[in-house]
Amino acid sequence: MRKWQIFLLEDDPGLRDLLVDHLNASGHQVQSCRTLTEAYSLLEQWTPDLVLLDLNLPDGDGLDLIPTIQSLGNLPVLIITARGSVPDRVQGLNQGADDYLIKPFAMDEFDARIKALLRRVHPQEQVMILAGTTLDINKCTLLTEQGNTLLTDHELRIMEYLMQNASRVVSREVLEQYVYGWYIPASNSIEVRVSVLRKKLRQIGSQLNIRALRKAGYALFVEE
């Protein structure tokens, strides 16, 4: 797995240390600071793959940093803030942020949003294989020796995330964030798409099955 370079601007020392430790444990390399002044200085010397941006800082508004970030290239920006009103969210997205996460948040949701942003900007693994079933990301196709089937973009994202987390339970909320990002669709959208995916897996003779676990989420298992 590639080690992503992540920049975290967060003035709360407890949360900053928690996120740095979590990201390091996930295999990423993290640089962090607490003020805009420190951030400007750091970004003059280093270009990350992803920026995690707090807004309420001791010396200004984190949104003021976005033009500098944009000057460095196509870097995804995830705002992490307690400012959760609709006008605040709209302002952040309009000024160039790619996604918006309101404090407090679950770490699973945090991870899902980071993966989704990095996937959009830095496409990596184009083929995934599990128990004789191949997911071709470029072609939006599932394949086995018995056949193949095309996937919609949303079905592709669901399958990709479940294969990345095979045999692990993924909550519906985390899956929604990975698949849809900022936009959350109708309440049964994930259920409908998972049902279609199950049928497609059966049609091509795949050993993979998506199980719905009541009040827990979904998990991808290999059927014996």
Automatic annotation (TrEMBL):
Keywords: DNA-binding, Phosphoprotein
Xref: SUPFAM superfamilies: CheY-like
Top-rank taxon: Bacteria
Segments forming domain OmpR/PhoB-type: 125-222
GO biological process, one term: regulation of DNA-templated transcription
Pfam name, any one: Response_reg
PANTHER family: REGULATOR OF RPOS, TRANSCRIPTIONAL REGULATORY PROTEIN CUTR
Recorded GO CC terms: cytosol; protein-DNA complex
Segments forming domain Response regulatory: 5-118
Residues annotated to bind DNA: 125-222
Modified residues (4-aspartylphosphate): 54
Molecular function in Gene Ontology: phosphorelay response regulator activity; transcription cis-regulatory region binding
Annotated InterPro entries: CheY-like_superfamily (IPR011006), OmpR/PhoB-type_DNA-bd (IPR001867), Sig_transdc_resp-reg_receiver (IPR001789), WalR-like (IPR039420), WH-like_DNA-bd_sf (IPR036388)
Protein species of origin: Deinococcus cellulosilyticus (strain DSM 18568 / NBRC 106333 / KACC 11606 / 5516J-15)
Protein name per Swiss-Prot or TrEMBL: DNA-binding response regulator
